[in-house]
Fold:
Amino acid sequence: MRAATDLLELRPEGLYCPPAGVYIDPHRPVARAVVTHGHGDHCRPGSRALLATPETVAIAAARYGRDAFARAQALAPGETLQLGDATIRLVPAGHVLGSAQVVIEAHGRRAVVSGDYKRAPDPTCAPFEPVPCDLFVTEATFGLPVFRHPPVAEEIARLLASVAAHPERCHAIGAYALGKAQRLIAELRAAGWDRPIFLHGALVGLCRVYEREGVPLGPLEQVGSQGKALAGEIVLAPPGALNDRWARRLPDPVICAASGWMRVRQRAKQRGVELPLVVSDHADWEELTATILETQAETVWVTHGAEEALCHWCAGRGIDARPLALAGRGEEEAM
Structure:
């Protein structure tokens, strides 16, 4: 039986699976790409063939146009595909709509490339499903013990309390266009906010994709020219928009940011965030370590974040772990 590490190798284009002849989340155009989800640091246009979940295929088309890939093939969770000497299937990762782990089986061994993932409940996407494997490739965006994400409901309650306390101001939240914006909207609906939520134009397109894919978001309106009339309302915008002229149209906005990085007070202060909301679409330290144990993997490759800390934790438990340097990663919200 071959080693599990024979299933994956690192090449200049990114992570490559020799038995299947495909790259996973390549950072350069390749012949065949398997993509875990639609964020731009994992899904890049230009590859000749794309394999992803149906939702990620729809997101890629919305972001890049239907001609961004010569051929796009959707593989629904639960389906399998034979590529070369390997069997490929996609399993939910819980990160954003359509996000998936890539499960590769060949030569009697199994490798799982998790992409980005979280373990907290999210009404806008399927929950993470742990898969026992021999080799597990994990992110480590928040791979330090200091990162413990609070329940999202608590952060939403803090937001709504601030809205009630400042009816003369609007609350403008910096949120990434794919995943974070839609999750915040869904969580606000679950908390009872049934009024329209106002959007920067850059968020509208992907919200429509979510709704077409069966995720209800309730009444949404584009800010447009009505900015000064939005006292007491909630506005979502890309983080960068809250620091430019666009934000001047809003009535004395309370600048908010929704990100796991808001756990770091200095980071919030540097970005002028008045109300930091610790809401992340990535696993925190306890979720990362628990997930590694659940996979029962004998080998762990760590990428995208605090690799050394997580590798050290693995070594202390007899798990063979090493950092996997992947270029071009880093699209956790700009905040």
